[in-house]
């Protein structure tokens, strides 16, 4: 059996006497949307921060596409194919959508330190930025200032910035947070369309979205993996129902 695209093995993180993650194992396959769920305080944010490099594990290892990421700083993990959208939208609010996209594409191509010439005159960067705009439904707002965009559109721009790094694994931290039903439905469709581009680790409290999108689900409780399986298995799992899903699982 071939190795998973991504694996986290035995992740432990302690904050003083608190064990936030207790030997967490997680694997994501190529082309998979894998959801990570659990009640508040389960350790989801800690796991994602360990994977992305914002926290260092006390034990365990992290491997992406055969490359050991454990101990590697966050920016180097991006170069090796790991990208992340945070729960709080992070865009360059004072800049236009097009300038946001150009900056993100430029950073990934390694041309960030070219001092001569304008980004907008670089036809290669221009073409890649436009392609991202069309893919993420941003073509009609290219010249609007990012901070003035509706929340749902800002989330799509944030996703476009993460995709500019051409990730093998994309970490999506509550992409539906703060969205109404229409924006959430659009985001679900957009995330589903990305599965051919990269694998996705999805952290999300909107269980309708999770059940629509996920190929497999890992459930955390008190810093430990409670269960991993396909959607039907997780919905029917008695411990998951008791700890997290409750009546939703029977709906």
UniProtKB/TrEMBL annotation:
GO molecular function, one term: ATP hydrolysis activity
Domain ABC transporter residue range list: 6-247
Gene source species: Thauera phenolivorans
Listed PROSITE patterns: ABC_TRANSPORTER_2
UniProt lineage: Bacteria, Pseudomonadati, Pseudomonadota, Betaproteobacteria, Rhodocyclales
Any one GO CC term of the record: plasma membrane
Presence of the UniProt keyword Transmembrane helix in the record: no
Alphabetical UniProt keywords: ATP-binding, Cell membrane, Membrane, Nucleotide-binding, Transport
CDD domains: ABC_Mj1267_LivG_branched (cd03219)
InterPro entries listed in its UniProt record: AAA+_ATPase (IPR003593), ABC_AA/LPS_Transport (IPR051120), ABC_transporter-like_ATP-bd (IPR003439), BCA_ABC_TP_C (IPR032823), P-loop_NTPase (IPR027417)
Name of protein: ABC transporter ATP-binding protein
């Amino acid at each position: 059996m071939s190795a998973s695209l991504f694996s986290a093995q035995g992740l432990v993180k302690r904050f003083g006497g608190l064990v936030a993650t207790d030997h967490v194992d997680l694997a994501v396959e190529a082309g998979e949307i894998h959801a990570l769920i659990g009640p508040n305080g389960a350790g989801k944010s800690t796991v994602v921060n360990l994977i992305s490099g914002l926290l260092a594990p006390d034990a365990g290892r992290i491997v992406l596409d055969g490359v050991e990421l454990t101990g590697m700083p966050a920016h180097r993990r991006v170069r090796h194919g790991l990208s992340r959208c945070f729960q709080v939208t992070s865009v360059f609010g004072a800049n236009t959508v097009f300038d946001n996209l150009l900056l993100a594409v430029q950073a990934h191509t390694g041309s960030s330190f070219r001092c001569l010439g304008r980004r907008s005159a670089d036809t290669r960067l221009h073409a890649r930025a436009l392609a991202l705009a069309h893919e993420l439904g941003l073509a009609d707002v290219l010249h609007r200032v990012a901070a003035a965009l509706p929340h749902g559109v800002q989330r799509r721009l944030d996703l476009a910035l993460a995709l500019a790094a051409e990730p093998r694994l994309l970490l999506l931290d509550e992409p539906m947070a703060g969205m109404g039903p229409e924006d959430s439905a659009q985001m679900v469709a957009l995330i589903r369309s990305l599965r051919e581009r990269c694998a996705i680790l999805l952290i999300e409290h909107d269980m309708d979205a999770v059940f629509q999108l996920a190929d497999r689900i890992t459930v955390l409780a008190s810093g430990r993996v409670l269960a991993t399986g396909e959607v039907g298995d997780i919905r029917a799992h008695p411990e998951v129902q008791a700890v997290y899903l409750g009546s939703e699982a029977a709906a």
